[in-house]
Amino acid sequence: AGRLSFFSSEWRKFTSNATVLDYISGYKIPFLSVPKQSFPPKDSWFPPEELTLIRNTIADLLSMRAIQLCEPELGQFISRIFLADKPNGKKRFILNLKQLNYFVEAPHFKMEDIRTASRLVKKRSFLTTIDLKDAYYSIP
């Protein structure tokens, strides 16, 4: 994970945008304050087939170096994990960062809807989809 930083010199050939180059060299989460939890979340229970999927997903994330093992530490912040159904019937691994997000400065943005998208599409327009499944892990 974080492989984009290995190519920062190449990125500088294409852009001088400071924000883009900052992200390439290593994104820093803009915390408003040190995250604190009054108490850790309760342990979760998963059926055996879900537990297998969770363990496999964690093993994949470890092998991609998207996550790393850590030791328990005083003041640690623990976020829950769960599985959500995907439209194709499979399960998606979710790390619920909702509680952590209360400590992060987040810029306001407007999420456009289908009406806006339909106004932008004209006759003979071409559309495509891009699978960004693991692209997130490329950002250091």
UniProtKB/TrEMBL annotation:
<feature type="domain" description="Reverse transcriptase">
    <location>
        <begin position="65"/>
        <end position="140"/>
    </location>
</feature>
<dbReference type="GO" id="GO:0071897">
    <property type="term" value="P:DNA biosynthetic process"/>
</dbReference>
<dbReference type="InterPro" id="IPR043502">
    <property type="entry name" value="DNA/RNA_pol_sf"/>
</dbReference>
<dbReference type="InterPro" id="IPR043128">
    <property type="entry name" value="Rev_trsase/Diguanyl_cyclase"/>
</dbReference>
<protein>
    <recommendedName>
        <fullName>Reverse transcriptase domain-containing protein</fullName>
    </recommendedName>
</protein>
<dbReference type="InterPro" id="IPR000477">
    <property type="entry name" value="RT_dom"/>
</dbReference>
